[in-house]
Write a structure and sequence with these properties.
By secondary structure, the chain is α+β, with helices and mostly antiparallel strands. Helices cover 18% and strands 36% of the residues. The chain has a five-stranded mixed beta barrel with strand order 1-2-3-5-4. A hairpin with a 2-residue loop joins strand 1 (22-31) and strand 2. It is rod-shaped, with a radius of gyration of 39 Å. It starts with a helix and ends with a helix.
């Protein structure tokens, strides 16, 4: 034995360690359930599987190799067999707890994979420490099914840190809202009234569609979906569809959209298209007791007065006409300033008796009757 080895032996026998002390050692042997460390002490240090990992089925020979350096914490200087009982897991947990505490205080963004989807939220593990993210804090929108997050790496911040009560709460929703606010501010800084922009349909309601503009949602109201009449937005748009719109108005963070581009206005060159004397084909859109409104172009309705339906006396339009019926008529008056157009079937003798109508119009009789009061009120 060399002098150096003899000196090392003296150091080992003279060295003292205490419970709770952190020591560093070299792996000199490893079994499936136990690690042996040379910690420079008269006795070797032992780390059992349960003090290395939470995985009770782990094979330590696949995790640690002879010659590896490990830092561990002394649990017992003498475990009863003359060896030092060490824990690696608890030391790492303490370090992880300290790191999470600092992340909580500093608002640090953490990133970790979802290890478990629970009934009330998600469980993620940061340095062997479990963090719970309640369902209400997973997203900025309600999500019924959270299984899509399984094994997915997500970002979050800690909004509660109480390791003594085992309450370490993560919050992903906060980050999403902050990112949404940032993008919204950037978008509002960039756009102006009149700008043409593309977006994707995000949601459809009875009164319109919400369009994702890439930072904020804009409302495309049902009245701005077409120059013509729109009964149901869902018949025109689908969720996920890309649409080209222009910014009609901006009020604070509310953005009003339209697809009624001025160049497509049906009243452009109306004096030429709808000149008095022109024979047109139109569709009965709605009726009142005094007449029927005929759509002669998308967004352009003309009045066919009850007195102009036939040379014979007609009591009310619904006695001889049906909603959706196509008719030929002559434009007898055009008022561009008030956007009013008057028609006459009588002038060209195009009236078709009710009994000669196509069956498809006759079948619509009941719905039309229900629609009459509403039409009268609009007029």
């Amino acid at each position: 034995m060399s002098d150096m080895n003899f000196e090392q032996m003296l150091d080992e026998f003279s060295k003292t360690i205490r419970n709770g002390e952190v020591v560093e050692g070299t792996v000199i042997d490893v079994k499936s359930d136990e690690i042996v460390l040379n910690i420079g002490y008269k006795a070797d240090g032992i780390i059992t599987r349960s003090e290395y990992t939470n995985d009770s089925s782990a094979d330590l020979t696949t995790l640690v190799a002879v010659g590896d350096k490990l830092t561990a914490k002394v649990m017992k200087v003498n475990d009863g067999d003359g060896q030092v009982s060490l824990t690696y897991k608890r030391l790492m947990a303490k370090k992880a707890s300290k790191r999470l505490e600092e992340a909580y205080e500093n608002g640090e963004v953490l990133r970790a994979p979802v290890t478990q989807v629970l009934k009330g939220g998600l469980s993620v593990v940061v340095d062997d420490t479990r963090v719970f993210i309640p369902a209400s804090l997973v997203s900025d929108v309600y999500e019924r099914d959270l299984t899509k997050y399984q094994d997915q790496e997500i970002e979050f911040v800690l909004t509660e840190f109480n390791p003594r009560r085992r309450r370490i709460i993560g919050n992903r929703k906060q980050l999403l809202l902050e990112e949404k606010a940032r993008k919204q501010a950037e978008l509002l800084e960039r756009i102006e009234i009149g700008d043409v922009i593309e977006g994707k349909v995000k949601n459809i309601t009875d009164f319109g569609a919400f369009i994702d503009l890439g930072g904020a949602d804009g409302l495309l109201h049902i009245s701005e979906m077409s120059w013509g009449r729109v009964e149901n937005p869902k018949k025109i748009y689908k969720v996920g569809q890309t649409v080209r719109v222009f910014i009609k108005d901006i009020r604070d963070t509310k953005i009003a959209l339209s697809v009624k581009f001025p160049e497509d206005n049906p009243w452009n060159n109306a004096s030429e298209k709808f000149a008095v004397g022109t024979i047109i084909t139109g569709r009965i859109a709605r009726m009142t007791d005094f007449g029927a409104f005929v759509e002669i172009a998308p967004g352009v309705d003309a009045l066919l007065h009850v007195s102009q339906i036939s040379r014979e006396h007609v009591e009310k339009p619904s006695d001889v006409l049906r909603i959706g019926q196509e008719i030929d008529a002559k434009i007898v008056d055009f008022n561009e300033a008030d956007r009013k157009i008057s028609l006459s079937m009588k002038a060209i003798g195009s009236y078709v008796p009710l009994e000669d109508l196509e069956p498809e119009y006759a079948e619509e009789a009941e719905p039309e009757a229900n629609a009459e009061p509403e039409a009268a009120e609009e007029e």
